[in-house]
Design a protein that fits this description.
globular; mainly alpha; 111 residues; 0% strand; single chain
Length: 111
Amino acid sequence: MVKKFLLMATLIMSGMFAEDAYERHCVPCHAPLPTSLQRMFMNHLLVYGGEHNFKAALKHYLRYPSKDISVMSDLFIDNFGIKEKSTLSDEELDEAIDIYWSKFKVFNKLK
């Protein structure tokens, strides 16, 4: 019980002092999950391809989460469920998605 409290307190505190929307809103909620944000990025990239489709699909999913449009496996969804509808403003959501794209995109990084 104490370990769970400390973990939650750490996640909340790290989210409050984060520098950008991605660090404040995405990282704390995804930290306890067994699949990294990088792996989730790769799943989205495989399904949606380029930057425009990727960002539009992710924003739509965050606004209207549904098992039908999730790129995560049924097993993952059965164990962890579908996320709650995002309450972020359009500006914060766009900022977080842009940072997420920039952080994990593979284009121009391959040699």
